[in-house]
Structure prediction request, 51 residues.
Amino acid sequence: MLIKKRPQFVTSFLRIIFRTFLRIKYKAVIEKPISIEDGSLVICNHTTSMD
Prediction:
């Protein structure tokens, strides 16, 4: 399976936009970004397609 990576400038641009949105809308503070090496866990609580 071939996985294509996004260009770095697209990821950086979207990260800036998203962080700004979170700070303005929810007053969120991002202390330390999660690196790929640290890993993450995604838990979904909606199990139907109607959501």
